[in-house]
Amino acid sequence: QVQLVESGGGLVQAGGSLRLSCAASGRTFSSNTMGWFRQAPGKEREFVAAMARSGASIYYTDSVKGRFTISRDNAKNTVYLQMSSLKPEDTAVYYCAASDGLTKWESDYSGWGQGTQVTVSS
To answer: Distances from the Cα of 117 to the Cαs of 13, 24, 32, 33, in angstroms?
Structure first.
């Protein structure tokens, strides 16, 4: 099964940018759809973005469209989330996970990493 490690979180001001990375091992990276989720304090984990193994199919939740960009480098077994125009509402722990298909449903994903904290100040 795939093992994932997130990194790149930090503290930024509203309107700023940040790029998260998710390194995969233990399973063929290119065989999986990769997704990003986030969980804010007191809230349920929510879907953010996903990309199919080929990179041809991408899905974003409405709240991040136009601001976040998901990408992947299969040669490096890494998926990225480039975040711009950050808002305080984006503050959360961000997780990556793998799925067999392009989906927004948490139950379809596995191999959750430890998460990386993103804090956006107002």
So the answer is: 14, 19, 24, 23
**Which amino acid makes up residue 19?**
R
Largest CA distance in the chain: 40
**Which one-letter DSSP state was computed for residue 108?**
G
Quick one: CA dihedral 102, 105, 111, 113, positive or negative? Answer: positive
For 36-74, write each residue's pLDDT tens digit.
Answer: 999 999 999 999 999 998 888 999 999 999 999 999 988
Q: How far apart (Å, rounded) are the C-alpha atoms in residues 32 and 93?
A: 22
Residue 92 near residue 47, CB atoms below 8 Å: no
pLDDT in tens, 15-35: 999 999 999 886 655 568 999
> Residue 104 in contact with residue 85, Cβ under 8 Å?
no
- Cα 94 from Cα 111, distance rounded (Å): 14
